[in-house]
């Protein structure tokens, strides 16, 4: 439970002033209750003739009671509205810390994310809410404890015996909550898990609408959704029934208490020791006295939920970050402007001379990947990684860039080992254009710059990525909204946009993962000619690491790395390898056939 204490403690402190103001606003709400009970007692004593009756006095008491209740109503609205602000700020803090760690902290973020984005979102929504809710319970806990103390003192001063007897059923509520909290927790957790599973599946469905339609799998997909929803509904009903049963037991306690009080008070009332006003006061306090055991029961049942939430959220963050980082006061910018973003590293600071990879082993869950790869990238070199499908090309470049974890090996920059490649090999030291393009629903300009200032680098990047002609064809040029909610670019355009996004960062090392899947031979040839030409003239990234099996790329290369089932099968200049490496010869001849076929197809199309 220590991590939960750390998170809740920090949540309470991060905006202490607002938290205290919120708590103080609730205080009168509970204290007015004490006063209302006393006013009721006075009123009923007057009406029942327990005191010398005076209509004026009774009316004043009525007015005071109504006034007190009005004040309580207004204070409830004010305190609640203010509390919402704190609640949201606390939730934002947790979410911002998780996102910050996912986006910036050391270590590959992909390894920390659950399999579906829907599940990640469900965690950011539900787990965060569980933690903030627990912290928020501290206010009713203190207030109901203060009210209970005050009420018990007042009641005991009137009739200590009845007070003690009344407390017994209320104590029973606390015991009941304690006894059932494991069950309630288990049911809650199950409902949460199944809810997250439905959210995750919906996310998959939305992402895969086209695949489902083209496979004619609509019914099967809906059946599966219904199945998951059924399980979720059953869990939700059980969860609700358990919570409501507990609530009903609490309500019944109040009625039992009132019954007990009537039985016990009957004799004293006849003798006049216990007045109608006392009865009114006791009745008005009893209902509110159950708030304390209910709040304690609620906190006890939330504690295990909060432990699960803390663990799940911490797992989304980098390995070295813990509950303290989850709730670190990194600032929530509601009313102020956030501080300016960190200024990119100035150029010329330790420029790339060599990047050396030694004994790099990066394996996926099934044991596939790359083993013991050695490779040296010199300033100004053009290196092509090639190999058959599944030979480990993507794994190699991603492990080099620290985007997936490596089990062994070192990567050095100018002879010095890089401790955390994921944090070090970033723009403008290195930029990566991945094989699968990812465009956001924003203008093409925003997609390429992603927060960088736009300058002449953008035009140059568009030209090097052979996107300049395509731009003329899209309706609003760089201002055209692309991505899932905009104009759909073709596969080749999207891949070149990804390449342009990497180029605009003006990196010293440009890493490009297999563009050939969506580019025709001629476009790819033009692209490598432009990029290699720019590297020679100093107008583009000096050092290139490219995954490709196309002749267009291989012909530009100073050195080629041939991978075969995760191991280096050949490493050197193209000419030498074509003589010494059978695997490259095989790939080269296959590629020649493919290019010839593509050429013939183009001729037929043009005719
Ligand atoms: N996330 C993963 N989990 C498990 N296995 C993986 C994962 N990613 C890749 N692999 C496996 O690792 C091996 C190398 O994959 P990789 O994507 O690096 O090959 P590649 O040479 O880039 O293939 P392609 O030419 O198809 O892009 C393959 O056998 C692949 O199935």
Automatic annotation (TrEMBL):
Annotated localization: Cell membrane
InterPro entries: AAA+_ATPase, ABC1_TM_dom, ABC1_TM_sf, ABC_transporter-like_ATP-bd, P-loop_NTPase, Type_1_exporter
Topology within the bilayer: Multi-pass membrane protein
UniProt cross-references to CDD domains, sorted A to Z: ABC_6TM_exporters (cd07346)
GO molecular function per UniProt: ABC-type transporter activity; ATP binding; ATP hydrolysis activity
Nucleotide-binding found in the keyword field: yes
Xref: Pfam families: ABC_membrane, ABC_tran
All copies of domain ABC transporter, residue ranges: 355-590
Highest rank taxon of the organism: Bacteria
Transmembrane segments: 20-40, 146-176
Gene Ontology CC terms: plasma membrane
Keywords of the record: ATP-binding, Membrane, Nucleotide-binding, Transmembrane, Transmembrane helix
Chief subcellular location: membrane
UniProt entry tagged with the keyword Amino-acid biosynthesis: no
Cross-referenced Gene3D superfamilies: ABC transporter type 1, transmembrane domain (1.20.1560.10), P-loop containing nucleotide triphosphate hydrolases (3.40.50.300)
Domain ABC transmembrane type-1: 20-305
Name the record gives this protein: ATP-binding cassette subfamily B protein
Organism this protein belongs to: Nonomuraea muscovyensis
Taxonomic classification: Bacteria, Bacillati, Actinomycetota, Actinomycetes, Streptosporangiales
């Amino acid at each position: 439970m220590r991590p939960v204490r750390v998170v809740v403690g920090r949540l309470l402190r991060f905006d202490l002033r607002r938290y205290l103001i919120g708590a103080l606003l609730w205080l009168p709400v509970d204290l007015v209750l004490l006063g209302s009970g006393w006013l009721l007692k006075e009123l009923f004593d007057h009406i029942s003739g327990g005191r010398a009756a005076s209509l004026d006095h009774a009316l004043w008491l009525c007015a005071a009671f109504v006034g007190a209740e009005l004040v309580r109503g207004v204070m409830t609205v004010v305190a609640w509205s203010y509390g919402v602000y704190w609640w949201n700020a606390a939730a934002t803090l947790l979410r911002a810390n998780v996102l910050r760690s996912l986006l910036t902290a050391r270590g590959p973020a992909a390894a920390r994310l659950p399999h579906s984005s829907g599940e990640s979102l469900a965690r950011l929504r539900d787990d965060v809410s569980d933690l903030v809710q627990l912290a928020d319970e501290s206010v009713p806990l203190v207030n109901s404890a203060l009210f209970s103390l005050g009420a018990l003192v007042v009641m005991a001063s009137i009739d200590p015996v009845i007070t003690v007897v009344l407390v017994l059923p209320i104590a029973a509520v606390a015991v009941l909550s304690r006894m059932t909290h494991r069950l309630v927790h288990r049911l809650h957790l199950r409902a949460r898990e199944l809810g997250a599973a439905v959210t995750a599946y919906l996310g998959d469905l939305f992402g895969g609408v086209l695949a489902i339609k083209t496979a004619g799998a609509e019914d099967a997909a809906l059946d599966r959704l219904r199945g998951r929803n059924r399980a979720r509904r059953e869990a939700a009903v059980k969860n609700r029934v358990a919570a409501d049963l507990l609530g009903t037991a609490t309500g019944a306690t109040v009625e039992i208490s009132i019954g007990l009080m009537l039985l016990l008070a009957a004799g004293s009332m006849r003798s006049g020791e216990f007045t109608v006003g006392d009865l009114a006061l006791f009745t008005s306090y009893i209902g509110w006295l159950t708030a304390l055991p209910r709040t304690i029961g609620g906190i006890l049942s939330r504690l295990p939920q909060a432990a699960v939430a803390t663990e799940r959220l911490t797992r989304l963050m980098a390995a070295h970050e813990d509950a303290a980082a989850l709730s670190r006061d990194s600032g929530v910018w509601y009313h102020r402007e956030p501080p300016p973003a960190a200024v990119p590293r100035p150029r010329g600071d330790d420029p790339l001379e060599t990047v050396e990879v030694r004994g790099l082993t990066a394996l996926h869950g099934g044991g596939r990947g790359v083993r013991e790869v050695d490779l040296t990238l010199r300033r100004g070199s053009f290196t092509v990684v090639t190999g058959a499908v599944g030979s480990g090309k993507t794994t190699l470049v991603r492990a080099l860039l620290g985007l997936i974890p490596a089990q062994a090996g070192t990567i050095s920059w100018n002879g010095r080992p890089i401790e955390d490649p994921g944090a070090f090999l970033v723009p403008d030291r290195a930029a990566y254009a991945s094989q699968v393009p990812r465009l956001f629903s924003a203008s093409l300009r925003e997609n390429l710059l992603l927060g960088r200032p736009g300058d002449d680098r953008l035009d140059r990047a568009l030209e090097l990525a052979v996107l300049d002609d395509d731009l003329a064809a899209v309706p609003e040029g760089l201002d055209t909204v692309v991505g899932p909610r905009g104009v759909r670019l073709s596969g080749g355009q999207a891949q070149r946009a990804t390449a342009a996004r990497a180029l605009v960062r003006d990196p010293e090392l440009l890493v490009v993962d297999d563009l050939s899947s969506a580019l025709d031979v001629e476009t790819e040839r033009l692209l490598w000619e432009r990029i290699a030409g720019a590297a020679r003239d100093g107008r583009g990234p000096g050092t290139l690491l490219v995954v490709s099996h196309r002749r267009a790329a291989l012909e530009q290369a100073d050195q080629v790395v041939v991978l075969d089932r995760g191991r280096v099968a050949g490493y050197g200049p193209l000419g030498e390898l074509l003589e010494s490496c059978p695997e490259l010869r095989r790939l080269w001849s296959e590629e020649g056939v493919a290019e010839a076929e593509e050429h013939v197809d183009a001729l037929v199309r043009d005719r």
